[in-house]
Amino acid sequence: SAAGPLAGRRVVVTAGGTREALDPVRYLGNRSSGRQGVALAEAALAAGAEVHLIAGIVETELPAAGPRLSLEHVESARELQQAVAAQAPSADVLLMAAAVADFRPADYAAAKIKKTDDVDAPTITLTRNPDILAETVRARPARGGPTVIVGFAAETGDGATDPLELAQTKLLRKGCELLVLNRVGEGLVFGRDSTEIHVLASFGVQGVLGDVEPAHVVGTKREAADAVVDRAAR
Ligand code: C5P
């Protein structure tokens, strides 16, 4: 059996984006590559954990399943929701790195949507997807589940509000123990190997970590992942 700070612990990682189907051939998606999630799975393995990786749509190679790594594939937010609900009760740590679509098409067309002779374009009506992270936090007292739940916030920043402030608000709203902030946008982070993150801890967790300032890491996604896993383990 493995050694390390997470030996004997079960870590569930979600990675990549979701695809929300419009019709049998079209979908709404996002630019998540899954690299940060894969790096988190690798960091958790290196820390001795037993890891279950739930992969959405990824543009990176997934690690091979092994004695301490199991893999599962999902496509839509609702499939991810079911997978997380099934895995969370037996997890010690949940690392929710997936870029989950906030909205999906309200109606799925069973047949391919056709162009018509008139010039009108169809209107796509969207509906909200469940917030899997918030839901997992809420269900925890009754259903049991991860001691440590880690959320991720990709902020482009609107220039007006400090991204750290936005992240602090999100940490409170989601109710998770740790929140990882990264700035995303044109030429930053997506599909890249380098990243810049801040790891914010909830008020209760700050007492345990003894931290007031959020941890700040500039480096590879694996270095960022190691910092997140280290804090989750503590
Ligand atoms: O609210 P926002 O989408 O910025 O929150 C990001 C965090 O919440 C990520 O950890 C993401 O995996 C999670 N999330 C979720 N379900 C959603 C949207 C986001 O679990 N529908």
UniProtKB/TrEMBL annotation:
Residues 11-234 are annotated as: Phosphopantothenate--cysteine ligase. Pathway: Cofactor biosynthesis; coenzyme A biosynthesis; CoA from (R)-pantothenate: step 2/5; Cofactor biosynthesis; coenzyme A biosynthesis; CoA from (R)-pantothenate: step 3/5. Residues 6-206 form the DNA/pantothenate metabolism flavoprotein C-terminal domain. It comes from the Bacteria. Binds 1 FMN per subunit. CTP binds at residues 102, 112, 130-133, 152, 170, 174. It catalyses: N-[(R)-4-phosphopantothenoyl]-L-cysteine + H(+) = (R)-4'-phosphopantetheine + CO2; (R)-4'-phosphopantothenate + L-cysteine + CTP = N-[(R)-4-phosphopantothenoyl]-L-cysteine + CMP + diphosphate + H(+). Its EC number is 4.1.1.36, 6.3.2.5. Keywords: Decarboxylase, Flavoprotein, FMN, Ligase, Lyase, Magnesium, Metal-binding, Multifunctional enzyme. GO terms for molecular function: ligase activity. Its cofactor is Mg(2+); FMN. In the C-terminal section; belongs to the PPC synthetase family. Catalyzes two sequential steps in the biosynthesis of coenzyme A. In the first step cysteine is conjugated to 4'-phosphopantothenate to form 4-phosphopantothenoylcysteine. In the second step the latter compound is decarboxylated to form 4'-phosphopantotheine. This is Coenzyme A biosynthesis bifunctional protein CoaBC. It comes from Nesterenkonia halobia. The chain holds residues 200 to 433 of 442 of the full protein.
